[in-house]
Design goal:
Length: 257
């Protein structure tokens, strides 16, 4: 009986030690995810995290294409996340470009501050882009002199507004842009300020506001490139419509980054 009691005590001690070990390991993983750490994902991609100037932890997927590669930042549309760019990102990575697709504040993995408070989506994502660009420019997989941005819908508005004020952004692609989404993101002035740098604006025929926006951009800056598709959807949906937009974007960026 005494031997059995000793045996049970040993088993309980072993289980306790194992549980403590697993718990400590889990806590370490969570701590790393709140900084600039990278976690490996399938296909050579990495999950990365960095913090904005106003304390929000942004989660992204980095698709590195080797040292000092031309690089693209992808900004999703409203009520979406970085996964909407996954197929395009892999195609661009295969073409020799490093890609960072982020969840903008309030979406996907970007829903908390550095001190753990929950946040809601915000139509203005300038600090998210600023933090992403800072992260990219410090990354050895990135050629900091050759960075472009792709934005979809409200992501396109945030993309051009940011790029207009950052002369180091070499090229921008806008999917289903708007002249003033939510009456909070006016873009025509930003397009004018962006000036003669390479700009590709894309819309689908049934998306009338985006078509009007693309026409207005072209009238404001005749040098921009435009692409109009038939019944192909809105924003990143056009990438999934089988119209060849991914190849158009890849060719545009390879030429202009």
């Amino acid at each position: 009986m005494k031997a059995r009691t000793v045996f049970i005590a040993v088993i309980v001690t072993v289980l306790f030690v194992n549980c403590q070990s697993e718990g400590n390991s889990h806590s370490g993983s969570e701590a790393k995810n709140t900084g600039n750490a990278a976690a490996a994902l399938p296909g050579g991609a990495e999950q990365v995290n960095f913090t904005t100037s106003d304390g929000i932890v942004i989660t992204g997927t980095l698709y590195p294409a080797g040292s000092k590669a031309p690089t693209v930042l992808c900004l999703h549309q409203w009520r979406s996340d970085r996964g909407s760019f996954a197929a395009l990102a892999k195609k661009l990575q295969g073409a020799g470009m490093t890609v960072l697709a982020i969840d903008m504040r309030g979406y996907g993995g970007s829903t908390r501050t550095a001190d753990g408070k929950s946040i809601r989506p915000d139509r203005r994502a300038g600090p998210d882009i600023e933090a992403a660009m800072k992260f990219l420019r410090a990354n050895p997989a990135v050629d900091a002199a050759h960075i472009g941005i792709i934005g979809a819908s409200y992501g396109s508005s945030n993309a051009i507004i940011y790029a207009a004020g950052d002369p180091a952004v070499r090229a921008v692609v806008l999917l289903s842009p708007g002249l003033n989404y939510f009456n909070e993101l006016p873009t025509e002035g930003a397009v004018r300020k962006f000036g003669g740098r390479p700009l590709l604006a894309v819309a689908s025929s049934e998306d009338l506001r985006s078509v009007e926006t693309v026409d207005a951009y072209r009238a404001a800056v005749p040098s921009i490139q435009t692409k109009l598709y038939e019944n192909a959807g809105h924003g990143t949906d056009i990438l999934d419509a089988g119209v060849g937009l991914d190849a158009v974007i890849s060719d545009f960026l390879k030429k202009n980054l």
